[in-house]
User: Fold these one by one.
Assistant:
Number 1:
Amino acid sequence: MKKTLLVVAAAAMLLAPSCATLKGLFAGAVGGAAVGAGIGYLITGDSEGALKGAAIGGAAGAATGTAIGAVMDKKAKELEKIEAAKIETITDANGFEAIKVTFASGILFDFNSSELSAESKESLKQFATVLADLGSNADITILGHTDNVGTAEANEKVSQKRADAVKKELKKDGMDPNHLYAQGLSFNKPVADNDTEAGRAQNRRVEIYITANEDMVKAVEAGTLK
């Protein structure tokens, strides 16, 4: 398991081609629903969301942050058992530990398809099983990414359909739909060079972020979530 510190403001500036564009895309995808402020700001650069997140984080003491970290560490270790997934722990805009799970699109989907394979459905079922006891105490944000082959419009559609397919499958597996958010980001956030096949393969991926929300803060402070 890899631990990564995300400096959220810097990440938003470096990764987003246009904060306004991504903000609009994200709002459209979730119908204006609120997402975890930490990951929402990373995606959109939304300073209002960051301020809301800071309020949540600021109201929580160091002991709460430590307790949330313990929950996330436990879940990250359990998620490592999913062979197809790459697991990283990160820090969100609230200063809380969070989890980033990455699936290569080639593992989940056939080329240019948004239909999940039987193997990928099993991997997502394992994911849902690990997080089942969290209930509403976490926000799950699913991001679909593509390489830059084809038009931006076509890639946006594919990435959104893939994110939606994962969301639908996780809902089917019993996860709380009120805390599942899906967004297709086309080729706006590459992690590798799109000029090489190896790089394009890395860019074709689905990321799932598990972030603490107000329910988790209340649960760890009450001692009902450990």
Number 2:
Amino acid sequence: MKDNDIKRLLYTHLLCVFSIILSVFIPSFFLENFSILETHLTWLCICSGFVTAVNLVLYFVVKPNASYKRSSLSHKVTRFLKCCIYFLMSCFTFHIIFVLYGAPLIELVLETFLFAVILSTFTTIPCLCLLGPNLKAWLRVFSRNGVTSIWENSLQITTISSFVGAWLGALPIPLDWERPWQVVHTEALTLLSVAWHLEYGRSTEDQTKKLN
């Protein structure tokens, strides 16, 4: 059973990584003059949409946290609405944090908010898919020795790594603020993605070693 979970986890990671790569190349076939730098706002929306869609599809297909209890339609609708509210709260919270850490309050508001959206996509969306809108479960997973499955362990590692990657990527921004690739938080996005990818692979490798 654990071997099957590790295989499913590996395939899930590969598809998530592949979705980010697709968000870079596919839009260029449909959108004229598309590039990450020149049309960065469009790319942020597309990347967020790709990652969210893949996470949702994988959740319904793989069902890592499947429950055998049947829930009513009203319960499912309520759960979905709570997830949407949690995601929006996450976006606004990250936006406020970015402003407190030095992002412009009025200028580049859309850029900063979309960066908050994509960070929420990398962190909050997987939490909502796996744990649902359950704050107690979130606190348990992100507390010391609180994970109970390889899925929760992977979630813990990749979420923390996304925050660290976004923070490290923002460090060089004040060094050359006037360059376009600095203004649109590209470095932060790059390191966020790299950290997410690396920790996805490392968490799967760690679980494989434990199994062997």
Number 3:
Amino acid sequence: MVLEERHTLISATAIVQLHDAVHGYVYIRNSSSIAPTYHAAIKFRWPPVDASTDGREALRAGPSSHRAFQSHPSRKTHQARPVDRVSASSRKYDEIERQLGRDEALSEYVKDKIRYDYNRGSNRLVIRMPIGVHEFFIDGVEDAIRSQLKTIRSGSDTAAGFAQRVRAARSSEIYFPIDDAPGGTKSKYGPDASFWHDDAEYPGVIIEVAYSQKTKRLARLAEDYLLDSDANVQAVVGLNIGYGKGGSRKATLSVWRTRVFNTADGNELRIAREVADDIFRDDQGHPTDHPGLRLYLSDFAHAGLARVQLGSHNRELFISTEQLCEFLTAAEVKVHQRGSLSKDQLAPGVKKRKRLETPPEEVTSEDEAVYAEQEERAAKRTADSDPDYQDTSTKSSLE
């Protein structure tokens, strides 16, 4: 889902304290129609408070907070800060996940508006807020790969059979086990785009988009994906889409893979940057003569699976610099044109009527008396903190 250009910039400390904020949403949900519209009810402070401080004030809720979104500079420029990092213990992170699991509406908001990775080995929490250009650009690159896979699938050879089992999964979550950690301990990642083979536990190809000030994050992500997957992830593609100083529109491409190095201590698996910051769009926004993105069908599954199902019937998938520029420019134009594009208007006099989310039930006077009595008992027992109390109103109403 493409996010609105008026995206919210969230502080890392705010997401770390997300479990505390959940309790605030309870009150919002119980008051008027603000409840379902989290993006209009939540205000995130920027810049973030120092991650070393408590940061309790970093996230506040209020009905007038949407004004902060409307006036945010990100509505007028691409120069945003959609990534933040903070250290968070496993206990803190687990509490965040538990609280999200208990609040479906808040969880859906976070899934829609926020992507976050957590590395349990380094206790590093990374929060990402994709913007419109980011999402449209990713869609173009992903679609180009899908189109070439579709062409390969149309054949009748071994490559066609292999390609038929490869699927795009956009930002599906990935979980990697942590070396030398208790069983079940895993890190979580949500890449910008990924391609999975039906028979593989991990994606073969992962694509990430970053901005000029976040290039080091791409290399760190590539290392996590490739090494934590034990080289089951075959290729990580990094697309740096600027925007640099002086209005530069330069954009670059990097590709990481793994290599085994012979050392004095034995063989060692490391990452190797096969393509290093190749410029595919220059400062003026024009395509360069550098090679484009080159992948192989065997990249879309781990080596063992590709060897068995594909063998020597490999195929090349290629996206030229001209195409990459076209996708990025189209994404920028699309975002800048918002509000000026064509759309149908309702005919004069036509009114809209929305369905109620929960149809009202007819309640008789006898039911009201029963409910009132149950509510009174529930309130009294809650006040008395009775640990054995269980609300049976739902069960009774169904019997």
